Amino acid sequence: MNKLKELINDLAPHVEDIINQPGSPRTVYEPISYILSLGGKRIRPAMVLAAYRLYSDSYSLEIFKLAQAVEMFHNFTLMHDDIMDNSPLRRGQDTVHIKWDDATAILSGDLLQIEVYEKLTEIGNIEILQLFNSMARELCEGQMNDMQFETIDEVSNDSYLDMTRQKTAVLLGFSLQAGALLGGANATDAEKLYDLGISIGLGFQLMDDYLDSFGEKAKVGKRIGGDILEKKKTYLWNEMWSHLDEGARQEINELYTQPESMIIASVTASMDDTGAKEYTLELAQQYTRKSLNALNHINVSGDKTYLQEIVEILAGRES
Amino acid sequence: MNKLKELINDLAPHVEDIINQPGSPRTVYEPISYILSLGGKRIRPAMVLAAYRLYSDSYSLEIFKLAQAVEMFHNFTLMHDDIMDNSPLRRGQDTVHIKWDDATAILSGDLLQIEVYEKLTEIGNIEILQLFNSMARELCEGQMNDMQFETIDEVSNDSYLDMTRQKTAVLLGFSLQAGALLGGANATDAEKLYDLGISIGLGFQLMDDYLDSFGEKAKVGKRIGGDILEKKKTYLWNEMWSHLDEGARQEINELYTQPESMIIASVTASMDDTGAKEYTLELAQQYTRKSLNALNHINVSGDKTYLQEIVEILAGRES
Predict the structure, then answer these.
(1) Based on C-alpha coordinates, what's the Rg of chain A?
(2) Cβ of A129 and B117 within 8 Å?
(3) Distance from CA of A297 to the nearest CA of B (A)
(4) If DSSP states are collapsed to H, E and C, what string results for chain B?
(5) Which of B102, B136, B144 sits opposite A27 (nearest CB)?
(6) What is the value of pTM for the model shown?
(7) What is the topology classification, in CATH, of domain B2-316?
């Protein structure tokens, strides 16, 4: 983790900057400081820097503005998603709409989104603004698809991967592409880095789904089986479901009156029996191999080790 | 109204464009089409064109993108404000969060905001993006100030005017300034037009407040006395309140158990007795005179009559 740590250190004062914002009335600024100070791995701004370091080892002012914009945008989506999903907790703390109220969370989120565009405008690069806009549009579409999946019984794995691409992967793709462009990458290589970000995002989400059911609690850092108890239509769940006949599906549905430990034990057994467990793990690993392979084939003048380490960390969830 | 009508006609196909958006999933796009199709006077995009026509009489592609961006941004603020304010109706129809739900209104609003930036990015003018960002930030601050005024008993008229400047006037200022810049105005004149937009906005809001209590129902197009029944802290109300002693204030507060017609009759009488009625009308008219005077003193190569008519219409609420 030395390489990532180095990037996080480089980022630290710029993260402090966006946390400590002046501005009045305070009630619209405090939720922004709050959500940004809850922490998180800062993996997206680190990806911005890692992509930049592929081409240049002397940072510009602009690259930190881009890193800030990406982290702020991510937190904007969290602030609004938490209202939409009725989530009471974020990183173990009250979500903004719980600590304040819905109106404050909507408005502070809107302001945070405007601040993202302020950063991007300061960079002054129209191409990066265009890439950002397309990404942000897809992310909204992905959030709507995700909300709609909750209301339907069966989601195809193609639909799930497409939603995951929109909701999670495009922001990673943008982070790499835009970071590389500011580092001096040509358009073709920057697009390859976008695709690389998509692979990283899909692999990360699949592994996240897998570990939620089959990880070790101590390593994953949260309770195992949460997705199963929520009947969340993850890749793992959908893959299992597609292999079950009507009778087996009904058995699973009937399980949900049983104690939680029983539900988790039975569903994970079914995920194993149907091959969904193995298949999901294999697919996640495929995305990681594809990512590392793509990175090997890009010719860069700078240092690949930053991005390599990030790919490996996200694949193994070691941090 | 011939001049405004002409501008509205020029705008019509471009308004149709933003109403009829393709995109999937439909559930995130339909609320955008819906709110944009509810109508309204389209006064903000008309102001964009009117400012442009001060300098040029041949439209560019960019000026219509700016007009679209301004109308879309206005509707984005309405979509989110209606959730924050718990408003069930907008232009006589269900608001988005009522017709769909809060989550959809939040997300479609976020998408609409991104579309605003797509339009601005297509214009490709960094200065206009900067002006827009500052304006949008102030508008968020104004909405928070407005929400906070509801929770306090006494609002000074300075605070009220400052909130109105942020919440209503800055978007009019931006519409004129940016429209003029795209028409070829120099920076100094564009700033004068921003100030003109601020005067128009303040005058408009004061007149709106005045007519809500003292207008004719048929002309104003809505029930008279609504603000009074809500105890809304308008300029008119605050001005009256500042002239009342403790006893008179208590009498007003006690009125609110009486029938509505009695409340309205007594409060309007008090607004008249304290001079608040006359003072508010006079101040509104001052802003209009100031606006028309400022317009007279700007040297332009084009046609002033479009903007002149808009100032007069907004001052008299004739449309």
Answers:
(1) 20
(2) yes
(3) 33
(4) CHHHHHHHHHHHHHHHHHHCCCCCCHHHHHHHHHHHHCCCCCHHHHHHHHHHHCCCCCCCHHHHHHHHHHHHHHHHHHHHHHHHCCCCEECCEECHHHHCCHHHHHHHHHHHHHHHHHHHHHHCCHHHHHHHHHHHHHHHHHHHHHHHHCCCCCCCHHHHHHHHHHHHHHHHHHHHHHHHHHHCCCHHHHHHHHHHHHHHHHHHHHHHHHHHHHCCHHHHCCCCCHHHHCCCCCHHHHHHHHCCCHHHHHHHHHHCCCCHHHHHHHHHHHHHHCCHHHHHHHHHHHHHHHHHHHHHCCCCCCCCHHHHHHHHHHHHCCC
(5) B144
(6) 0.95
(7) Farnesyl Diphosphate Synthase (1.10.600)
B171 to chain A, closest Cα gap in Å: 15
Residue-wise pLDDT tens digits, B146-184: 999 888 878 999 999 999 999 999 999 999 999 999 999
Chain A contact set for B136 (CB, 8 A): 114
Give pLDDT tens digits for A232-249. Answer: 899 999 999 999 999 999
Distance CA(B178)–CA(B187), nearest Å, equals: 10
Predicted interface score ipTM higher than 0.90: yes
